UniProtKB/TrEMBL annotation:
InterPro entries: Arc_rbn_hlx_hlx. It comes from Shewanella colwelliana. The lineage of its organism: Bacteria, Pseudomonadati, Pseudomonadota, Gammaproteobacteria, Alteromonadales. This is Replication protein RepA. Gene3D superfamilies: Met repressor-like. Residues 34-55 are annotated as: Disordered.
Length: 114
């Protein structure tokens, strides 16, 4: 590190965000999308487009669970061949499992090797 790195620089002016924009920016960050603060300000969306956006946005929660090495390998292989994110695959499997009747569930659980 040289002394030029320690030079005081003028801070870049920050764009003022409303509360809604701040929350939306946090959601964008969580989903890996570009920040609103870095974009140029656009006209505010209409109520109709905001309603559509809210309905189409799914809220996800972080979850931690334990899998066997074999399960992890199978999940990785499925994700590669299907070209689908692992978390989405797990959500799809849970949905599929939840739609089965009690007899099918009992059979699956009974035949499980875990």
């Amino acid at each position: 590190m040289s002394l030029t790195d320690l030079k005081r620089r003028k801070p870049k002016p920050r764009k003022k965000l409303s509360v809604e924009e701040f929350i939306e920016d946090a959601n964008n960050y969580a989903f890996g999308q570009p920040s609103l603060a870095k974009k140029t300000r656009k006209k505010k969306p209409t109520n109709e487009s905001m309603e559509l956006k809210k309905q189409s946005t799914k809220i996800y929660r972080h979850a931690t669970f334990t899998l066997t090495e074999q399960s992890i390998e199978q999940l990785n292989e499925l994700a590669k061949t299907a070209n689908v994110a692992k978390s989405r695959l797990i959500r799809m499997m849970i949905t599929d499992f939840a739609t089965k009747d009690k007899n099918e569930l009992a059979s699956i659980i009974e035949n499980s090797q875990d």
